[in-house]
Amino acid sequence: MFTFIDENGFFVELSFKKGQFKVSPKHVLVMVNNNGKWLCTIHKRRGVEFPGGKVEPGETLEDAAVREVYEETNVHITDIKWFADYLVHSVEPFCKAVYTGRVEGIDPFIGDYETMGMLWLTTEELLNYPNLSFYMRDDGLKKMLQEVKHHERQW
């Protein structure tokens, strides 16, 4: 278990073992690495972040992960694997399931819904990017980037 305080002052728990929290995940975050670069989305208000969002009624977490990545970046992913859960102890606590995936294809970005498209960044670029979303600047991101390398070797 890895714990930290986020930029909003909330206590956050990050676990790389399933089922550690009493709060079930209702949100997803997806980490996709392709040719040494991370897939990020450019959110209009928050800045650059990993794709993700809320699970819709009738959807599985995995379905939501695939849908959110496509809606925000026009990237098709496959080989979805659960990677971590993190629990934010905000006024109303919520849990996000973190997944990894593999790029299957990329369509031209024509949407302009919540995001302004995709951005591919190396780990170094990601850690130093000037316009990151608040949750991409915290200790949890650094820990996930460290752990994903370890988990990818096991997969």
Automatic annotation (TrEMBL):
The keyword Disulfide bond does not apply. It holds the Pfam family NUDIX. It comes from the Bacteria. Keywords: Hydrolase. GO terms for molecular function: hydrolase activity. Gene3D superfamilies: Nucleoside Triphosphate Pyrophosphohydrolase. InterPro entries: Nudix_hydrolase, NUDIX_hydrolase-like_dom_sf, NUDIX_hydrolase_CS, NUDIX_hydrolase_dom, Nudix_YtkD. CDD domains: NUDIX_RppH (cd04665). Residues 21-145 form the Nudix hydrolase domain. Belongs to the Nudix hydrolase family. This is Nucleoside triphosphatase. It comes from Ureibacillus massiliensis 4400831 = CIP 108448 = CCUG 49529.
